[in-house]
Design brief:
394 residues; mainly alpha; Glutaredoxin; 4 domains; four-stranded mixed sheet; 21 helices; globular
Length: 394
């Protein structure tokens, strides 16, 4: 950028540099982390890094709201705001350094040296953003300092902060350790067994822990009895997903049955759907009966589901996730994809069709479909990584 070139190519007196940075910031915002650090040191304001993706609707919403909402303007006035695209330049490098994932926007509050104070992911409106922002600003301390303090004198507040922080950075083993600490600090006052299960599931999914760690965490959830009854259905579904990925479906029977019993009396649409999916998974994984599993799933979709494109897609995806009936899965997803409209909606269909084609050995077609999906929704960076793997495997 022009401003950066001027500052790096010429020796500028400190007083002039300070004036230029402050004036430029009020006019259009800082453009580099170096500028943000300098201005933060001068003003004693923390830095707020806002990582965005050029094709992210939630990032666009932040930009629109910041133009009109007084409370958002006031919040941004309390920090040195640096907006960074994860696709290019400094933003791409810093995204890796700050462990920015695949969901946007990501907000990271730092001190004048760039050390992280707090972070949160996503934007669902001004009120929720302000709540996260105020919470971050109310207890300004670097994460490293908080870790040291928590080690020397653990408190519930620090343990919860660090559990949330490492969940957001996807450091699942660290999140798990602070959740364990949190449980010890609260004793029987609060139950963190399901959050511990969720962190363990993420770790097992990412090959950081063996599957037996997940069954142990699930047993702890079940041991809580009625207190965790509402969690048993989602827990069984998560276990089935992880077991399919790691090849441990033979260990699912009792957990699927617990989920089936816990969801049997639910009358809400989501609960009924979860109950039926668990019944199908029980047939597949506990009974080893693929035909019965397919029958249960088709009955759950209702009469005439083959004429409903949304249900055709749902059935095809369900089959793909379980690696069964892939020829029919491709046929139904292809039917739905042919009629899908809207860039993001069609991209999601193309991605699933590409996945199924790749699973069936149609690598070249899978790559072509993936290219089409990414052209419609470039923000799906996680799928771009998968496409690179496919190309490398040709």
């Amino acid at each position: 950028m022009a401003t950066v070139n001027i500052f790096t190519r010429f020796a500028v007196p400190a007083t002039i540099l300070s004036f230029a940075l402050v004036s430029g910031t009020h006019a259009s915002g800082v453009e580099t982390l170096v500028q943000a650090k300098q201005l933060s040191a001068q003003t004693s304001k923390p830095i707020l890094l806002q990582f965005y993706h050029d094709d992210c609707e939630y990032c666009d919403q932040v930009a629109r709201d910041s133009e009109t909402d007084a409370s958002l303007k006031l919040a941004f006035g309390r920090v040195i705001l640096l907006k960074l695209s994860v696709l290019q330049g400094e933003g791409a490098a810093l995204a890796a350094n700050y462990r920015v994932g695949d969901y946007f926007p990501v907000f990271i509050l730092t001190d004048s040296a760039g050390h992280t104070l707090s972070r949160w992911t996503g934007y669902t409106g001004v009120d929720r953003f302000i709540k996260s922002f105020n919470q971050a600003m109310s207890d300004v301390m670097t994460v490293d300092t908080r870790i040291a303090r928590c080690k020397a004198n653990p408190t519930q507040r620090d343990a919860l902060f660090l559990a949330d922080y490492f969940t957001d950075t996807r450091e699942h083993l660290k999140a798990r350790e602070y959740l364990r600490l949190l449980q010890r600090l609260y004793g029987t006052g609060l139950d963190f067994s399901y959050r511990l299960f969720s962190a363990t599931a993420e770790a097992v999914w990412n090959d950081l822990l063996p599957f037996d760690s997940l069954t142990a965490a699930a047993d702890t959830v079940r041991a809580k009895g009625q207190m965790n009854m509402h969690n048993l259905g989602p827990m069984a579904q998560i276990m089935a997903n992880v077991a399919r990925k790691t090849g441990h479906t033979g260990k699912l029977e009792s957990y699927l049955m617990a989920g089936i019993e816990a969801t049997s009396r639910r009358t809400d649409e989501a609960g009924i759907g979860l109950h039926r999916d668990l019944l199908a998974d029980y047939a597949l994984h506990a009974l080893g009966d693929t035909t019965e599993a397919l029958s249960v799933k088709k009955k759950a979709l209702g009469d005439g589901w083959e004429k409903n494109l949304a249900k055709c897609f749902q059935f095809g995806e369900w089959c793909f996730r379980r690696n069964i009936n892939l020829a029919d899965a491709e046929r139904y997803v292809r039917m739905a994809t042919d009629k899908a409209t809207g860039d993001k909606f069609r991209a999601s269909h193309l991605r699933m069709l590409a996945e199924i084609c790749f699973a069936r050995g149609k690598t070249q077609e899978a790559i072509q479909l993936a290219d089409q999906a990414l052209a419609l929704e470039p923000s799906a960076v996680w799928f771009e990584k998968k496409l690179r793997e496919w190309r490398g495997g040709k």
